[in-house]
């Protein structure tokens, strides 16, 4: 079995974070706060968070906040739940949630809940179970879950459950590993996992493992380390390669979406964990660091995070454990939620 190249991955992430003018950085400008969360969490899992300038990061994050209380993907960008969660998670990594006006941020999030219990991502009204998870997780980290109607939020998520045991982005939408993670994690955080048919969903999820050991996000897709690729644009690819690799295939990020869901429903023993570890390690750039969606593709911070996070879930030696529902290191979750 190969070895996780911690030093090279840390150097790659720090180098990417410092680049401002190349093509990938320009394309990713509107997602820079998400990128900060992916990169910084990876560094923390690998024990390398001390390599970044904490005060500089926190100052920049706070400049991304809008007067509404929400955060944009970069300075001057419109607020959205996607970026608001990343801001909260980054501040949690550094134990700096106290710099926030908690009520202002939580009121912004709570204000996006709809009458049926669903959540819009921003003022423009797109509804998706991703936003339900994001809102529930954000408010939980801020200790303000009482700001929303949790019962209605759970009821809406359950309405998105399909006959195959999975969940879609809206009622009647196709089951997808990324959406399943969002729904299962939201239900786990709210103590509502009893609504999940664990055997049925577990079977659907374990069927995502293919011969290479990797996981895919839907039936008939290829293996990949993750796949919020269908949710947010991967930072390492041009628009055309993104379309090519994500519409017709799957990736390393599924090592997070599928694996975390299996852990939360106690069915992770239904897959071959050793083969999945090897698949992730095979996606490393052994010369320059970083992890790609599948072996021999270009690396990016997105898949580097989900690859390392997947290895953490698989209890790979030498890296910190990550919480499958909170998507943060376990010690960070304990500090935020339990004060220790």
TrEMBL record:
Claim: Metal-binding is one of the keywords in the record: yes
GO cellular component assignments: Rab-protein geranylgeranyltransferase complex
Catalytic reaction equation(s) = geranylgeranyl diphosphate + L-cysteinyl-[protein] = S-geranylgeranyl-L-cysteinyl-[protein] + diphosphate
The answer to whether the entry has keyword Chaperone is no
Q: What is its EC number?
A: 2.5.1.60
Q: Which InterPro entries match?
A: PGGT1B-like (IPR045089), Prenyltrans (IPR001330), Ptb1 (IPR026873), Terpenoid_cyclase/PrenylTrfase (IPR008930)
User: One matching Pfam family, short form?
Assistant: Prenyltrans
Which positions fall inside the Prenyltransferase alpha-alpha toroid domain?
4-228, 252-327
The GO biological-process annotations, alphabetized, read as:
endoplasmic reticulum to Golgi vesicle-mediated transport; gametophyte development; root development
Q: Name one GO molecular function term.
A: metal ion binding
Identify the SUPFAM superfamilies for this entry.
Terpenoid cyclases/Protein prenyltransferases
Enzyme class per UniProt: transferase
| Keywords, ordered alphabetically | Metal-binding, Prenyltransferase, Repeat, Transferase, Zinc
Cofactor(s) needed: Zn(2+)
> Which note does the record give on the cofactor?
Binds 1 zinc ion per subunit.
- What PANTHER family does the record point to? GERANYLGERANYL TRANSFERASE TYPE BETA SUBUNIT, GERANYLGERANYL TRANSFERASE TYPE-2 SUBUNIT BETA
Q: What is the annotated role of this protein in its UniProt record?
A: Catalyzes the transfer of a geranylgeranyl moiety from geranylgeranyl diphosphate to both cysteines of proteins with the C-terminal sequence -XXCC, -XCXC and -CCXX. Required for male fertility and root tip growth.
Q: Which family does it belong to?
A: Belongs to the protein prenyltransferase subunit beta family.
- Quaternary structure? Heterotrimer composed of the alpha subunit RGTA, the beta subunit RGTB and REP; within this trimer, RGTA and RGTB form the catalytic component, while REP mediates peptide substrate binding.
- Official protein name in the record: Geranylgeranyl transferase type-2 subunit beta
The organism of origin for this protein: Capsicum annuum (Capsicum pepper)
Q: Supply the source organism's classification.
A: Eukaryota, Viridiplantae, Streptophyta, Embryophyta, Tracheophyta
């Amino acid at each position: 079995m190969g070895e996780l190249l911690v030093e090279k991955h840390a150097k790659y992430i720090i180098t990417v974070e410092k680049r401002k003018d190349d093509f990938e950085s320009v394309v990713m400008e509107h997602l820079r706060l998400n990128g900060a969360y992916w990169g910084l969490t990876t560094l923390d899992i690998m024990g390398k968070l001390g390599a970044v300038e904490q005060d500089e990061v926190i100052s920049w994050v706070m400049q991304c906040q809008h007067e509404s209380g929400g955060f944009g993907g970069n300075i001057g960008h419109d607020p959205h739940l996607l970026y608001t969660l990343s801001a909260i998670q980054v501040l949690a990594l550094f134990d700096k949630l106290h710099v926030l006006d908690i009520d202002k941020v939580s009121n912004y999030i709570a204000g996006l809940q709809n009458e049926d219990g669903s959540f819009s991502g921003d003022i423009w009204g797109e509804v998706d179970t991703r936003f339900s998870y994001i809102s529930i997780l954000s408010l939980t980290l801020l200790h303000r879950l009482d700001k929303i109607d949790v019962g209605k939020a759970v009821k809406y998520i359950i309405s998105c459950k399909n006959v195959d045991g999975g969940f879609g982005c809206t009622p009647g939408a196709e089951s997808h590993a990324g959406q399943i993670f969002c729904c299962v994690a939201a239900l786990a955080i709210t103590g509502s996992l009893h609504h999940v048919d664990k055997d049925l969903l577990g079977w659907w999820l374990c069927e995502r493992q293919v011969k290479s050991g990797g996981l895919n996000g839907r039936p008939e897709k290829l293996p990949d380390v993750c796949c919020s690729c269908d949710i947010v644009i991967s930072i390492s690819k041009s628009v055309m390669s993104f379309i090519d690799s994500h519409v017709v295939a799957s990736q390393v990020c599924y090592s997070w979406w599928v694996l975390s869901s299996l852990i939360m429903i106690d069915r992770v023993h239904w897959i071959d964990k050793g083969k999945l570890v090897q698949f992730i390690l095979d996606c490393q750039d052994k010369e320059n660091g970083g992890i790609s969606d599948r072996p021999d593709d270009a690396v990016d911070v997105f898949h580097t995070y989900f690859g390392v996070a997947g290895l953490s879930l698989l209890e790979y030696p030498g890296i910190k454990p990550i919480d499958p529902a909170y998507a943060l290191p376990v010690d960070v979750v304990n500090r935020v939620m339990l004060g220790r």
